[in-house]
Amino acid sequence: MAHAVVVNAAQLASYSQSKQFLLDSGYFSDNILCHFCTSMISGLVTTAASMPVDIVKTRIQNMRMIDGKPEYKNRLDVLVKVVRYEGFFSLWKGFTPYYARLGPHTVRTFIFLEQMNKAYKRLFLSG
């Protein structure tokens, strides 16, 4: 559930903010190119925000028992141990393949959303 919260919050907020930034720059108009670029930015932000949550989730799922005790006590313990023993940036191991999956997914999602919004406005609000 934490993953879903982080992904949705990061995607929606970063999409809206980056779209507004690109439109305000004067180099983009509200078209499919803008939506594509904005989606890629959103995918990048979402990847950066959600990877630590995924690392923790994966470590808990693959947790071993050591001397009859679980390897980790809770999610915070996983986070602390990963940072302590593997380094802060290990929370983003595998960033490129993760982004290669999430970037196109974000593009498809938001381009579809923008096209549906455009059709809705044209069909139902242009009275």
UniProtKB/TrEMBL annotation:
Main location: membrane
Gene3D superfamilies: Mitochondrial carrier domain
Gene name for this UniProt entry: LOC110587725
Record lineage: Eukaryota, Metazoa, Chordata, Craniata, Vertebrata
Solcar repeat feature ranges: 30-119
Gene Ontology cellular-component terms listed: membrane
Transmembrane segments: none
Family: Belongs to the mitochondrial carrier (TC 2.A.29) family.
Span of the signal peptide: none
The keyword Transport belongs to this UniProt entry's keyword annotation: yes
Signal in keyword set: no
Protein name per its UniProtKB record: Mitochondrial 2-oxoglutarate/malate carrier protein-like
Pfam families to which the protein is assigned, alphabetical: Mito_carr
Keywords associated with the record: Membrane, Repeat, Transmembrane, Transmembrane helix, Transport
Species this protein is from: Neomonachus schauinslandi
InterPro entries: MCP_dom_sf (IPR023395), MCP_transmembrane (IPR018108), Mito_Metabolite_Transporter (IPR050391)
Membrane topology: Multi-pass membrane protein
Protein localization: Membrane
